[in-house]
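Batch job 17 of 40 flagged for manual review because the log was empty.
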Amino acid sequence: MKHILYLHGLESKQGGDKVSYLSRKHYVLAPAMNYYSPDIEKFLLQLFESEKPDFIIGSSMGGYTANLLSAKFNIPAILLNPALINPPLRFKALESNSVISKALHLVVLGEQDEVIPYKQTQNYLLEHGFSNIEVRPYAHRTPLEDFMEICEGVFGNL
């Protein structure tokens, strides 16, 4: 059983079908994220200290944040349509010398994403030496069926 931290996107809400799916076989921590809070970095650092997750999944702004946490704590992560290029908010206290986490496991991009153009993100990742990228035929939100397939590929049959 994995101890997974799931970080939703900027305009998304806590919980949902993806968290329910992961919770069937894993301990999932999926906090309500207020990315605009001046205390967000402090909150995340305290969360890591107390919960000690061993895997992170982040979507969109949560993907940007998951990459930073993955780099800081050397924990594997899956990023779903991450806001890596020009994120709407920046977390200076979490940023490190590593643009892309060395512990990063997989990045999944939607080729029809109109929020975060997948080609830009794909090129950015490749330029920084990361090539474990999947491009899938959907928009910004990862469909549950695809999410399940991605997780089964990483964690085995849930």
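Reviewer: the log was empty due to a logging misconfiguration, but the result itself is present. The first helix runs from residue 17 to 23. Unflagging and moving on to job 18.
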